[in-house]
Amino acid sequence: MTVDWEEARRLAYTAGRAAAGGTEPVALSDADGRTLAEPLRALTDLPAFPTSSVDGWAVRGPQPWRPVGRVLAGQVAPPLTDDGTCFEIATGAMVPAGAEALVRIEASTRDGDGRVSGEPRHGFVPEWRAPGEEAHKDEVLLPAGTAIDPAVIGIAATCGYESLTVFSRPRAGLLVFGDELLTGGTPGAGRVRDSLGPQVPGWLRRCGATVDPSAVAGPVQDTLEAHLTAVREALLPADLVCTTGGTMHGPVDHLHPTLAELGAEYIVNTVAVRPGFPMLLARVPGADGRPRFLAGLPGNPQSAVIALITLVAPLLAGLQGRPAPVLPTVEVTEAVRGRGGDTHLALARLGPDGRSATPVGHVGSAMLRGLSNAHGFAVVRPGTEASAGDLVPFLPLPLVTGERP
Fold it and tell me: Which residues form the MoaB/Mog domain (predicted)?
């Protein structure tokens, strides 16, 4: 049964989220691009001790102050016990107990006896950071499901973490169907060059999956026996297998009979979207009791990419425990036609501010030139048209691994 495009994305994400669960610890140096499987909590107050924000003097009592020592970053400051005394203090150093104020070095003077005078700075910017100013011990800094980037790694290191517990990366494979495909050389004599085998693994990696080169195979011979053998073998080590082509019911389309033979359950079977409608997502039972997923991508290259970011990207987000993707809104600079009762995904390039989108040319479902010049797709909902200046959802192409979604 054909499914609405937004509903198809929801179903794909829900299926992935239900199958998530594997976790592992990774060192901070290996955590970029992974996903927190546990909330990131402060292991201590941040900062853990009162910390000077300036180079200057920690003073007590009335001025002038007599210097009685110096505190550098990394040292434990002795208490300042007597009125009229001060410690020289460096930025990042521990503020001594008993200090009443900090005086910036540039706001101070010294007399002939070496005594220090000056005025503490007043206003909204404190001269030292109080313990717990940024976070208190055990406070949740980031929830489970947060995509880890260098900033997340930085706050984890600040807290004192050596490693983070993350969701396991989904393992993905790819099977390319089609006797008409060439894996090298230029197209001709009725045969076309395979463009999906080289590009789909990159999209999968950008969605957070691992793709071993040995998990990419094809072209698979156009027979049911060859399809069954290839799919069975590909599913054994994988969480997800993508296939290209064969999603319809033509004379050499063997994917649906293969799924029936494997006892698969359709999550989505055909989506009301143009281009790309003959896409599918199925759950395949594994001999070990763990379900695998198969995503059937259409054979036309642009349609295949649309199927990938429609079904596979939400599925992989769910498998990694991430929140369901939320689409931004952009203003289209030109009119974009609707596609009747189907959602229309129109290739578009974002403006410099990221808030506007201009449709690009060469957008046939078999073309890749438009895709290579686009940032994603303007989404025109069923039964609507988009005029220049209208606000519409925008479906971005997957980001480089490690970037925030």
Answer: 173-318
